[in-house]
Structures are given as structure tokens and as C-alpha cells.
Design brief:
binds zinc ion, 17 helices, two-stranded antiparallel sheet, single chain, alpha/beta, 490 residues, 38% helix
Length: 490
């Protein structure tokens, strides 16, 4: 009887592991626990910043529309994970969280106010993060982000500050974290806001970090190198990695930084690696669906690197994918296109809004100050966004002309100042209007230039995946990860 029960439990436990039921390379006494029962020793947490279901679905429908007219969904790798859940995102002060309080919730299990990283609402008490618990338990820890390494989401795994904009303090805490690997964007304000502080990178080096910012050094760095900070050789807005849509072939991607993390962190005591696709959020703030979609697809590729690793350690690897909140109020469907979508049009976009600003609009404005006219830019608009101006409606043409006038500094074209934010959200008017019109033509709508309060999906694959099913709060992710890793947390 006893044997039969044990056998049954074994079968039940194995049934939680449909992806990796066979071929474990983790034999031996230490690793005999079956999936769902043993410790998750190699743990990946992927966070799409601003990535809720609409960002994911849009990327999936785009992937379909690019290759066929079928009404179908080309699934991303991570949406095929065996377990999916829904996660609430509100913080201690608002239904619409920011990345700092959302990061705090995910990393420490505590609600706090927007703008605060890993401190309580009174900004006196600090919280220990899941990455720090893992590190204290002997696991190696890595933090990867496409945005700056001391931006709110990555900072939520190693720093404690009353304000997310204390970039220098966060940079110093990064340098003192002891975590084995940081990779992706640069370190913002590394010598302080006024450039008069000790260089945080120098502090990191004194703490034993190797700092690399060239592709050659990135390729050369191997396990055994010690602690590493690897900054992208190519940087875009605010010191972040380039948008995937703008990344030149051969330049390092988020998948490359993830693979390097796996290579450097892999060790018998396990690791915790957080990877953030940070610019899904930035693109959605600017209402640029094309840039957001390509960054979701790039994040999916990085997750693929984790899945490849999981094949080698199927019983001990856990991969969790979530978002910290939705951004932009992105939706599939627009009043002007009603029940139709034309997502293939998004595929005509060749530049992010940032690249258009930097490479086209700014140089044009500098050249033509007094004589600027929209006609000059129409070829570049066609090339960048696939928008054929002559094929637009009179209303769309008027919107673009108004936005152009505003971009060149002619503020007299509208009588209401208050509509400026609603129309352009503080971005370059012409550029945001072009992405909006491209998106609307494709059947994609936006409601905001900020975050929204809808829940996000969370996907899980691997050891203890089953605990990530259901509808729960973002603070529960911390507890679920701790439980999967067998960490005793408070
Ligand atoms: Zn965020």
C-alpha cells in the first residue's frame, strides 16, 4: 500500500512537468527530487516592462499577419508555457502603479508608493529582495535590462532608495551589491547628477568587478572571470540599449546578454537571473506599437535561451515571465477600423520613434529652421513608417500637418494649449502622430501615454511551475519564487 501511494505521488509530481519529462542531465543523489517537489535551483525571472496581455497578443497577431492573411495566432515561446496566471498590479497609493513600486512588489513581496524602491510607504524601513535572499543562500545572481542598469525595475532587485530618481545612490548600491553579473544598458549618472561624485564604476572595480563595454570584451569574457558588469557598446535614448527595431545586425541583443548571464552564472549551487525587457514600456509610453512589438519578440528570444538551458537541467530550472504593469492602454481594435485589423502595416515600420527623432527630424529641423515644410519629410516618413501621405484621408493629412507645425515650433496652429498633451504626450508631435496614424491604420488603439491599471499575465515553466497558476497579487510572485527556491523569507 505504501509503495503504491509513493508510486502514485511520483506519477502525479511528474505530470506537472510535461515539457521536460525526459532526458534529465541532473542525475545523482543531490538531484533526485522530481519536478514540482525539489528546489528550483536555476531560476529565471523575465519581466516585460509595460507588458500586459495586449502587448503580448499584439506581438502574436503581428507575427501571424507578417506571413499570412489567416485569422490565427502565432504563439510566442513563453505563451506556450504549461502554466499561466493573472497578476494584479496596483500599489500602496494608486491602482496604476509605476515601475518602482511594481518592482518592489515583485522583488520583495511588499506594496509601497509609486517612485519608491524597496522601502515602506514611510520611506524608513527597507525590504530584502528575492535576489538578495538567493545570494545569501549561495546562489549566484544576475540582473539584465535593456534600459539602464540602475533604472527602476533592475534596481528593484538590489537597491533600496526613497526615490527611483536617486540614480547615483542606486549605482553605488549596484557596485556594492556583490551580485555576480549585470548586463545590458549603461549606468545612468555614474558620477552623480552634477558629475562630482566618485565614479560608481570605479567603486565596482574596487569591489572586484570587471567592467566591459565592447563587443570584443563581451565575447572574450568567460566563466571564472569573477563579477562582471557588461554594458552595451551601442547605446540609444537615456543610455539604454537600442530598440530591437533599430538594432543593427551583429550588435548585441537582450538574448546575447541573457546567454552570457547563463554562461557566467552557471554553477552547482544554482543561480537567480532577472531579465527585463525595459523598452516595451518606453515604446508604449510613446504610443509606438512597432517598437514595442519587436521588443516583445526580442524578449521572447531571450526566454528561448533560458529554455535551452532548461533542457540541460529540466528538473531544477524554473522560468517565470511576467509584466510589471500595462503601458499606453494599448489595445487591438480602433474606432476607425472597427472589426478589422491590418497588422501587416506595422511591418512596414523600419525605425522606432526615437530613431526617427534622432536620425530624421532633429537634423532636418537644425538644417531648415525657417524654411521647413512637411513635403521635405514625406520620403523619410514613407521609408521610416511605410506611410504613403498621398493615400491618407484629408483628416489624417491635417493631423500630420498640425503635428509638423508644432514640431517646428509653430504653436499658433491650435487654439487650445490643453490638447497638446492629449495629442502628443510630451513627445515630438510629428513623430508621435505618425506612429499613432500608422497604428490606427493597422487597427491598434491607445488611451494613454502613461501606465494603466489592468492585471498582467504571468507564465511559468519548470520546477514548481504549478504554483504560478491562478489569479493573485504581484506581491505573491516574491513568495512563490521563494517557495520554489526553498528560501526562508520574511
Ligand atoms: Zn514598469
Amino acid at each position: 500500500m505504501k509503495i503504491r501511494i509513493a508510486f502514485l505521488m511520483c506519477v502525479l509530481a511528474l505530470s506537472f512537468q510535461p515539457l521536460f519529462a525526459k532526458g534529465s542531465a541532473d542525475g545523482g543523489a543531490r538531484n533526485t527530487a522530481v519536478a514540482g517537489k525539489g528546489q528550483a535551483k536555476y531560476v529565471f525571472l523575465f519581466i516585460g516592462d509595460g507588458m500586459a496581455m495586449s502587448q503580448i497578443s499584439t506581438a502574436e497577431v503581428f507575427s501571424t499577419a507578417r506571413s499570412s492573411k489567416d485569422i490565427n495566432v502565432t504563439r510566442l515561446g513563453f505563451t506556450q508555457f504549461p502554466v499561466a496566471g493573472l497578476t494584479t498590479t496596483f500599489d500602496a497609493g494608486t491602482f496604476i502603479t509605476d515601475s518602482a513600486s511594481a518592482g518592489t512588489a515583485i522583488a520583495t513581496g511588499n506594496k509601497t508608493l509609486s517612485g519608491v524602491i524597496n522601502m515602506d510607504v514611510g520611506k524608513t524601513k527597507s525590504f530584502k529582495t528575492i535576489a538578495e535572499y538567493a545570494h545569501d543562500a549561495g546562489m549566484k545572481v544576475g540582473v539584465v535590462s535593456t534600459v539602464t542598469l540602475n533604472h527602476a525595475t533592475p534596481a528593484s532587485f538590489y537597491s533600496k532608495v526613497p526615490s527611483r530618481s536617486n540614480y547615483y545612490d542606486i549605482a553605488v548600491q549596484l557596485a556594492n551589491s556583490g551580485f555576480e553579473y549585470f548586463g545590458g544598458g549603461s549606468i545612468d549618472q555614474r558620477t552623480g547628477k552634477n558629475k562630482d561624485q566618485e565614479d560608481a564604476v570605479a567603486i565596482a572595480k574596487a569591489n572586484g568587478y570587471t567592467y566591459i563595454d565592447s563587443k570584443e570584451a563581451f565575447n572574450a569574457i568567460k566563466p571564472g572571470a569573477g563579477k562582471v558588469i557588461a554594458v552595451s557598446p551601442v547605446l540609444q535614448d537615456s543610455g539604454s540599449m537600442p530598440y530591437e527595431i533599430d538594432r543593427k545586425s551583429g550588435d548585441l541583443s537582450i538574448a546575447d546578454y541573457t546567454k552570457k548571464g547563463i554562461e557566467l552564472l552557471d554553477n552547482p549551487s544554482g543561480f537567480f537571473l532577472m531579465v527585463e525587457g525595459g523598452k516595451v514600456d518606453w515604446a508604449c509610453h510613446a504610443n509606438d506599437a512597432g517598437a514595442a512589438i519587436y521588443d516583445v519578440l526580442a524578449l521572447d528570444k531571450a526566454i528561448g535561451a533560458a529554455l535551452d538551458f532548461a533542457k540541460r537541467h529540466p528538473r531544477e530550472t524554473l522560468i517565470v515571465v511576467t509584466g510589471d504593469h500595462e503601458t499606453g492602454g494599448l489595445t487591438m481594435g480602433f474606432a476607425g477600423t472597427q472589426y478589422n485589423t491590418f497588422f501587416d502595416k506595422v511591418g512596414l515600420q523600419k525605425r522606432s520613434y526615437v530613431a526617427f527623432d534622432e536620425e530624421v527630424l532633429k537634423p532636418y529641423k537644425a538644417r531648415t529652421a525657417a524654411t521647413a515644410k512637411l513635403a521635405d519629410l514625406l520620403p523619410a516618413i514613407k521609408e521610416s513608417f511605410g506611410i504613403d501621405y498621398n493615400a491618407l484621408s484629408a483628416f489624417q493629412k491635417e493631423q500630420i500637418e498640425f503635428a509638423f507645425q508644432r514640431s517646428i515650433g509653430n504653436e499658433q496652429v491650435r487654439s487650445f494649449a490643453e490638447d497638446k498633451y492629449l495629442l502628443y504626450g510630451g513627445y515630438e508631435p510629428l513623430t508621435v502622430k505618425l506612429t499613432q496614424i500608422l497604428n490606427q491604420t493597422a487597427g491598434i488603439g491607445w488611451t494613454s501615454y502613461a501606465h494603466t491599471g489592468v492585471p498582467v499575465p504571468t507564465f511559468a515553466s519548470g520546477a514548481h511551475q504549478e504554483i504560478f497558476g491562478g489569479y493573485y497579487d504581484n506581491t505573491d510572485i516574491f513568495r512563490k519564487l521563494a517557495s520554489a527556491m526553498n528560501l526562508r523569507v520574511q
